[in-house]
Design a protein that fits this description.
Shape: globular
Largest sheet: 7 strands, mixed
Strand content: 15-25%
Structural class: alpha/beta
Number of helices: 13
Strand order of the largest sheet: 5-4-1-6-10-7-11
Distance between the termini: 54 Å
Number of strands: 19
Length: 408
């Protein structure tokens, strides 16, 4: 009987550096879903479990094909360790499936460019290589320095003539050997760790026994801890995701694009004048994207619950058919697809709030805009990096029609 290999992705909802970080989209796919996809593509993973306390993350995990383990509050706070989440998920999985886990992996979805080969390598180091633990590392050639604390800066009888501030950590600062003359150092990537499950349960930490280093491509090493990291990941995604199957839709995947209005084509705010008239703001780039989609002969529709005539006015400006003031958007969408002879699985629907979820369930490509409700982003197959009213529709047009339509 083959060994049971469980990949656990800890993904709590309370990130402070980047709010809702684990649902942030890189390359149009939420971080937690990216990690699940790569784990499921591994040759050795039996199952993927996402440990979370957040309903949006849970929805994204299930949509990507993972099982969800509800994380208790006492291991979901800022001080909770990843090891605690993995141990809890492993216990929950064994209880639910009646089978012992042989190898458990800790996979961090905040490493957006982790690849299935990395996961295979960590697993094989234990299954075939005899290691007790393994981790992904990348070759590192830098000189590491440490700034001394105030006490270190105080001169002593021995150091008063030599103390100069910074301290070389992995080198003697008075000697600068060539890279090829130095020992090879490795940087822990933070992406994937593997452990023999029985010993991990006993030791309760991720390094014990013989630890194998699994080399990965340094170009893919990035951990998202703050908004700048997220911006870099999004900039790199078109290069590093090239050839990744199924991440974003193309023109060949789609016959129709259906657009919600408020919060999708607008920023969800309404200005009201003294006479009670409502005014909304839209993005000119979205108009360019919609015009390009129309030229590409895609069927287009604006579908909204909003009764305000501004919806019809915007649709007229864009030369799009519109159904608005609709109570049951899902029924209206289903009827429209039947009338147009369009298979729902070839429809891309763009939304932002919970009333869009029934439509998400109908179509093949549910897409959420950045800033959408967490549960909506979790249920989406793809997520834009631009917010509603900020160029999200033009971004989707660029997915379908090519980089010449990248958002401005």
């Amino acid at each position: 009987m083959p060994p049971t290999v469980l990949a656990v992705i800890p993904a709590r909802g309370g990130s402070k550096g980047v709010p809702a970080k684990n649902l942030a989209a890189v390359g149009g796919v939420p971080l937690v879903a990216r990690a699940v996809h790569e784990c499921r593509a591994s040759r050795h993973i039996t199952d993927v479990a996402v440990s979370t306390d957040d309903p949006g993350i849970a929805a994204a995990a299930r949509g990507a094909g993972a099982v969800v383990v509800q994380r208790p509050g006492d291991i979901a706070g800022d001080t909770a360790t990843s090891e605690a989440a993995v141990l809890h998920a492993m216990d929950a999985y064994e209880a639910a499936h009646g089978t012992a886990v042989d190898v458990v992996l800790l996979v961090q979805c905040t490493s957006p460019f982790i690849a299935r080969e990395d996961i295979d390598g960590v697993t094989e180091a234990i299954l075939a290589g005899g290691a007790d633990t393994a981790l992904t590392v990348a070759p590192f050639h830098g000189f590491v320095w440490r700034a001394p604390d105030a006490a270190d800066d105080l001169p002593t009888e021995e150091t008063s003539t030599t103390a100069t501030g910074g301290i070389g950590v992995n080198h003697d600062k008075s000697y600068r050997p060539r890279r090829q003359d130095r020992p090879q150092d490795f940087l822990e990537t933070g992406a994937a760790y593997g452990m023999r499950a029985d010993r991990f349960r006993a030791e309760k930490h991720r390094f014990f026994g013989r630890t194998e280093l699994v080399r990965t491509d340094a170009a893919r090493v990035l951990e998202i801890d703050d908004p700048h990291d997220l911006a870099r990941a999004r900039a790199l995604a078109p290069l590093l995701d090239a050839g990744r199957p199924g991440a974003l839709p193309g023109r060949a995947d789609i016959d129709a694009v259906v657009l919600d209005f408020d919060g999708t084509q607008t920023d969800d705010r309404v200005l009201i004048d003294s006479d009670g008239r409502e005014i909304v703001a839209v993005h000119r780039g979205d108009g360019l994207g919609i015009a390009a989609l129309r030229r590409a002969e895609l069927s287009l529709l604006i579908l909204s619950t909003e009764v305000n005539p501004v919806v019809a006015a915007r649709a007229k400006k864009l030369q799009l058919p519109v159904l608005h003031g609709i109570d049951r958007k899902d029924l209206a969408l289903k009827q429209w697809c039947e009338e147009q002879g369009i298979a729902p699985e070839r429809v891309l629907y763009v939304g932002n709030d919970v009333n869009d979820l029934p439509c998400f369930d109908l179509v093949g490509w549910p897409v959420a805009v950045a800033g959408a409700h967490d549960v909506v982003r979790g249920a989406a197959r793809a997520v834009t990096s631009a917010p509603g009213g900020g160029g999200a529709i033009r971004e989707i047009a660029a997915w379908l029609l090519g980089p010449s339509l990248q958002p401005v």
